[in-house]
């Protein structure tokens, strides 16, 4: 479900329904130069490609052979990961008076407070 141009109450209510029924939810809007986007994907599984570098032969310590061995033996493996997304109501109901919140405030975009 994708929403735009809705009130905060409507967005929270629709997100709760989507989350309860395992339906992915996106909302966003733009106000001139400022905008926001929120995604509640519930329990989201995805695959990430990781580079796996084999160990260099212990007999070769230095020189061009070392670099060649590292580059030629690079392999990729696919790693399955899972992420749990929070609901919109939780994201909007942050208590900014706690110590953790004060640290997070530095990493929070000012646009978050425009949505409030």
Say which CATH homologous superfamily is assigned: Ubiquitin-activating enzyme E1, inactive adenylation domain, subdomain 2
Summed over residues and divided by their number, the pLDDT gives a mean of: 81
Query: What would CATH call the class?
Result: Alpha Beta
Helix content: 25-40%
Strand arrangement across the biggest beta sheet: 1-2-3
The strand count comes to 5
> How do the helices and strands follow one another from N- to C-terminus?
EHEEEHEHHH
Query: Quick one: biggest sheet?
Result: 3 strands, mixed
Low-confidence stretches: none
Instruction: Could you tell me the CATH topology label.
Output: Rossmann fold
Describe the structure.
The protein has 116 residues and is of the alpha+beta class. It has a single domain (2-55, 74-115), classed as Rossmann fold, CATH 3.40.50. The chain is 34% helix and 34% strand. It is built from five helices and five strands; from the N terminus they run βαβββαβααα. It has helices at residues 8-20, 64-72, 88-92, 99-105, 111-115, and strands at residues 2-4, 25-31, 34-40, 43-53, 74-84. The strands form two sheets. It has a three-stranded mixed β-sheet with strand order 1-2-3. A two-stranded antiparallel ribbon has the order 4-5. A hairpin with a 2-residue loop joins strand 2 (25-31) and strand 3. The radius of gyration is 22 Å and the shape is extended. The model has no long low-confidence stretch (mean pLDDT 81). One of its GO terms (molecular function) is ubiquitin-like modifier activating enzyme activity. It comes from Charadrius vociferus (Killdeer). InterPro entries: Ubiquitin-activating_enz. This is SUMO-activating enzyme subunit 1.
């Amino acid at each position: 479900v994708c929403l735009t141009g809705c009130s905060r109450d409507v967005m929270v209510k629709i997100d709760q329904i989507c989350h309860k029924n395992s339906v992915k939810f996106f909302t966003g809007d733009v106000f001139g130069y400022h905008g926001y986007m929120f995604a509640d994907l519930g329990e989201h599984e995805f695959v990430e490609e990781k580079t796996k570098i084999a160990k260099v032969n212990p007999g070769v310590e230095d020189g061009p052979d070392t670099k060649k061995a590292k580059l030629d033996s690079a392999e990729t493996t696919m790693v399955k990961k899972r992420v749990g997304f929070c609901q919109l109501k939780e994201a909007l109901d942050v208590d900014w008076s706690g110590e953790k919140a004060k640290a997070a405030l530095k990493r929070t975009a000012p646009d978050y407070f425009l949505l409030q």
